[in-house]
């Protein structure tokens, strides 16, 4: 089975630790799916700087193919992160060249070769989604930035939808899932950090507890969860088994630094 991570990437930069890691939702999911046995590719736009180099070399080291990745002159997307009492917090981000490309007919022919295409709210490719959807099963991560208006715009193009809802009471999470499912996706999942996640499939609500783990870094755990769910579903397993696999993969991801490792030293280059 083949998965394409499409769109967003970033370099997660730990200022207090002077380390930088390759990341971004579409990148992380592609890497984690590869580790779980899928044939994974990534298509997006990288900068001409050390961040772009780090992403490209890390994807190659993980066996993720990148035949149609673009590189543009300029800074790669970058997120600056601090830590306080063991918890991370986001300081600022650089958009960089991440969205400085257009998908063409050749790209759409390439995209059509995959069993699932995964992208996110950060990928800035919403206008392309209806063209992708008729060909492929589309998976979309809405993170915690979704609104009802945005769900109404994007969900009709999706088969699988993942939303972060850690701040919502359980009753509101269930109502949100029901609303989202009414817009067309086959499966809708709400992740809630260390709290149980909820998933809706064929009108039935499923609950999956977070699994105990030793936490080194929670960055990328949600992406690992998505990769576990998608990989398990693509292999023909049940939805409850997919949620359990997602929780297991997320717990494993928490034990490593960065989204999927490959950290290198960071020296402040004056990025703004």
Automatic annotation (TrEMBL):
<dbReference type="InterPro" id="IPR050306">
    <property type="entry name" value="PfkB_Carbo_kinase"/>
</dbReference>
<dbReference type="GO" id="GO:0016301">
    <property type="term" value="F:kinase activity"/>
</dbReference>
<protein>
    <submittedName>
        <fullName>Putative fructoselysine kinase</fullName>
    </submittedName>
</protein>
<keyword id="KW-0418">Kinase</keyword>
<comment type="similarity">
    <text>Belongs to the carbohydrate kinase PfkB family.</text>
</comment>
<keyword id="KW-0808">Transferase</keyword>
<dbReference type="InterPro" id="IPR011611">
    <property type="entry name" value="PfkB_dom"/>
</dbReference>
<dbReference type="InterPro" id="IPR002173">
    <property type="entry name" value="Carboh/pur_kinase_PfkB_CS"/>
</dbReference>
<feature type="domain" description="Carbohydrate kinase PfkB">
    <location>
        <begin position="20"/>
        <end position="258"/>
    </location>
</feature>
<dbReference type="Pfam" id="PF00294">
    <property type="entry name" value="PfkB"/>
</dbReference>
<dbReference type="InterPro" id="IPR029056">
    <property type="entry name" value="Ribokinase-like"/>
</dbReference>
């Amino acid at each position: 089975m083949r998965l394409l991570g499409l769109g967003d990437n970033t370099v997660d930069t730990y200022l207090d630790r002077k380390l930088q890691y390759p990341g971004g939702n579409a990148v992380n999911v592609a890497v984690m799916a590869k580790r779980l046995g899928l044939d994974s590719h990534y298509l997006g736009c990288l900068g001409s700087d050390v961040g772009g180099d780090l992403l490209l070399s890390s994807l190659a080291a993980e066996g993720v193919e990148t035949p149609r990745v673009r590189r543009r002159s300029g800074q790669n997307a970058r997120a600056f992160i601090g830590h306080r009492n063991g918890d991370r917090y986001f300081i600022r981000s650089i958009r960089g060249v991440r969205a400085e490309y257009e998908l063409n007919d050749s790209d759409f022919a390439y995209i059509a070769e995959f069993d699932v295409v995964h992208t996110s709210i950060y990928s800035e490719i919403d206008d392309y989604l209806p063209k992708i959807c008729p060909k492929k099963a589309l998976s979309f991560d809405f993170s915690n930035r979704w609104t009802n208006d945005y769900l109404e715009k994007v969900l009709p193009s999706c088969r699988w939808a993942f939303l972060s809802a850690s701040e919502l009471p359980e009753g509101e999470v269930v109502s949100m899932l029901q609303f989202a499912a009414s817009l067309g996706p086959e499966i809708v999942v709400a992740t809630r950090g260390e709290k149980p996640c909820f998933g809706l499939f064929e009108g039935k609500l499923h609950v999956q507890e977070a699994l105990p783990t030793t936490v080194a870094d929670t960055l990328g755990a949600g992406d690992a969860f998505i990769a576990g769910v998608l990989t398990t579903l693509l292999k023909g397993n049940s939805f409850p088994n997919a949620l359990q696999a997602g929780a297991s993969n997320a717990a494993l991801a928490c034990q490593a630094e960065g989204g999927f490792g490959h950290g290198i030293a960071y020296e402040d280059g004056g990025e703004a």
